[in-house]
Amino acid sequence: MDVTEWGGGQLTVVRPPSGGFPRHSHDEYVISVNLCGLERVRLDHTSFDVNLDEFTVYNPGQVQSCTTQVPPDASFAAVSWYVPPTAVEALTGDAPVDFERPVVRSPHLREEFLAAARAFRELAPEGHPPPAESAVLVQERLMLVLSQLLDLASGRRVRAPEPADARIATVLARFRSDLSGAPRLAELADEAGMSREHLIRTFTRATGTPPYAWHLSARLAEARRRLRKGEPVADVAHTLGFADQAHFHRHFAAAYAITPGRYRRLSQINI
């Protein structure tokens, strides 16, 4: 995967080795066009095909997966734009919105999106920030694409969640009481009387973060507390249910830009 970051969002060129993706969700809106190959997408409870002249537009928290078809001598590739909800809110000047249609056919807008993505990637070689003025111009092109997609996909306002939703409060209480491993969403959904997909979307609307990501953040925050107390890195990783120390190291460093071992050492020095 090639990644270009800007303003909290990401532009990526995705080339999954397996040719598709298992079930997953994102905190952001995901806007994609295929460069090579056709997709068979499952989104929440629906399935549909995506051709080369179409966008896919997914809302935060939607559960997605796909399989792909490509010629024998080619591999699947797509350009995906991960858009923070704050960027959409800034554009609409209102509450968050949902795309009602997950597929939008617009060859002209697709070419504009790809041209803007190419321009931005040329401005920002890997590891280097783009020139500020040039980056702003390209970002404006991308935001115009987003604005037109909102119109074409019939963006609608999202009703604000009830802050006292008892089902989500119960899930949060369960999460806080057990940080010993990844949550079992299917079991929690059954207990709450919801489908797994409904739980993910309702939880995300109520907290701003999908359940697994919320729980992972809580586990990492608990890891920080334990490391500050001087607990060994391996013990912390095991207690909090990470598959192994390397798995814990990777998540901790990604979240806090410091390895757990170094964080523990610096915490002990400052006591």
Q: Which structural class should the secondary elements be placed in?
A: alpha+beta
Strand-residue proportion: 15-25%
Oligomer: single chain
Largest sheet: spatial strand order: 1-2-9-4-7-11
Unreliable stretches covering 5 or more consecutive residues: none
Distance between the termini: 41 Å
Question: Helix count?
Answer: 10
Whole-angstrom Rg? 20 Å
Tell me the total number of β-strands. 12
Globular, elongated, flat, extended or rod-shaped: what is the shape? globular
Helical coverage, percent range: 40-55%
What series of H and E elements makes up the topology?
EEEEEEEEEHEEHHEHHHHHHH
Largest sheet data: 6 strands, antiparallel
Topology (elements, then pairings):
Layout (H helix, E strand, L loop, with lengths): L1 E5 L2 E6 L6 E4 L4 E8 L1 E6 L2 E5 L3 E5 L5 E6 L7 E7 L1 H8 L4 E2 L4 E3 L1 H17 L8 H21 L3 E2 L8 H12 L7 H8 L3 H12 L3 H18 L4 H7 L5 H12 L3 H10 L2
Antiparallel strand pairs: 1-2, 2-9, 3-8, 4-7, 4-9, 5-6, 5-8, 7-11, 10-12
Helix pairs in contact: 2-3, 5-6, 7-10, 8-9
